[in-house]
Amino acid sequence: MSTVEKAISLLNFFTEDTPEWGLSELARQAQFDKATTRRLLVALANSGLIEQHTVTRRYQLGAGLLRLARVRESHFPLLQVAVPVLRDVATATDETVHLSEFGARGLVTVHVEESTKANRVSVANGQILPLHATASGIAFLAFSPSQLAKSYLRKSLTAFTRHTLVQPARLDDAIKAAAEHGYSRGEQGYEDGVFSIAAPILGLDGYAIGSIAVAMPLSRNTKATTERHIQAVRGAAQAISTRLFGEQPTPRQARVA
Amino acid sequence: MSTVEKAISLLNFFTEDTPEWGLSELARQAQFDKATTRRLLVALANSGLIEQHTVTRRYQLGAGLLRLARVRESHFPLLQVAVPVLRDVATATDETVHLSEFGARGLVTVHVEESTKANRVSVANGQILPLHATASGIAFLAFSPSQLAKSYLRKSLTAFTRHTLVQPARLDDAIKAAAEHGYSRGEQGYEDGVFSIAAPILGLDGYAIGSIAVAMPLSRNTKATTERHIQAVRGAAQAISTRLFGEQPTPRQARVA
DNA sequence: CATCCATGGATCATTATTTGATCCTATAGT
DNA sequence: ACTATAGGATCAAATAATGATCCATGGATG
After folding, report:
1. With a cut of 0.85, is the ipTM above it?
2. Would you say domain B76-245 falls under CATH 3.30.450.40?
């Protein structure tokens, strides 16, 4: 562990629960010598990453972090973070993978990686996904503020195919299952012959900001592929959140019914 | 400069304008040896403060910063940051200093440091300050979204004293002056015999989130004290912003008229 | 009130890490 | 094919980090 790494490792002891540390206290926790710890803290303080309360002599995270975090954030919009991850999922599954983001217009597809297979599902960029009829939508609803999910349950649910969930009770069940398992499945709810698995991308508050889905022709679906897609999609969604926010948000499931 | 400080100094080269650096490029800019720069970057990368794009090999700020910044933010609400600064101003001026924050209820006084003088201005905590009649309010308006300021100009302006600015044109002028100079003055606009100087506390977007004001009996007011209070209040407002956000926001003046 | 113990901070010979000249390889431009 | 520049690796020499030890201060505790 280099000196620099040691110094930075100290920063990670500062959390919401323990936002302040005394010198000895921190040295003990980090298992560094007290003198070493102090030198590291002083260096961090000179750089603005740490501040010392002049009265209590305790150490806290510094204001310098805020500027840096902002630069990072402005350089990393959802798309930029998500596209490489989507590509990985597309490569791993060789099925069409698409990302959607919830905004004013609803749940909009913002990026698609198409399968290389001849028989594949095509998804148009910019397409608005009905929340009740797609795996993406249900995954999103399952991790939305309860009010949003409930209000959707009361809406008139358009039937796009014979399989679209139009009975509130059925949709309710699907949302509950998605909330419980962390992913949703859609079987011909929007287009005939399409099977998909989706997982929510969580924002810092634990609510979904969008979703990521793998879509395949129903004919190709097997238990094994389903299982693989679930893993891939959930992993990808988590990876995106983590890269966007630096940590995995705690999920907040919608309480329907 | 310690190794740790060198490493962290590298972080500061990453800005909104230049959010990515190549190794050699950065080494040149920072005036470190290329090998040194690389080792530092690797250490930072291992700690999550830097990430390297696997394809382009360029370096960017890492996701680890986000968590840290959030801890810092949650630990530093306005009050906690501002109170020590207010206290300094109070000590320096020996006049009553008060801080107000704009929220749903309007501009509310959230902290007061009273002068030790017998003849002093008293301000109640929790008091709601009329925007058009107080130095704090005008300083706030001058750095608000233009729409807010304009809509206020159209409202019926209550007269609290004979000196309250009730003519839109006069208020308009006061706002313009405050926008130009970065501080406002209030002379008996709310209470007779009170003179105050206020400066806006800017949020990251450059708009005011509140203000800080020094209030004194008009009788004690001289050119010299006014000048000192202006300096003190402006400095304090800037210090608070800087401590809250890690940098001084660029002011955004309201365009009235 | 004296004592004790833990705290933050300073010192400095010893030790281990950082440093940077140099080399290697890959890639892009001429 | 040649050149320039990139990122990255190496290792003896230089330097900075280390930690045992000491000091001063400030609560506790008897």
Report:
1. no
2. yes
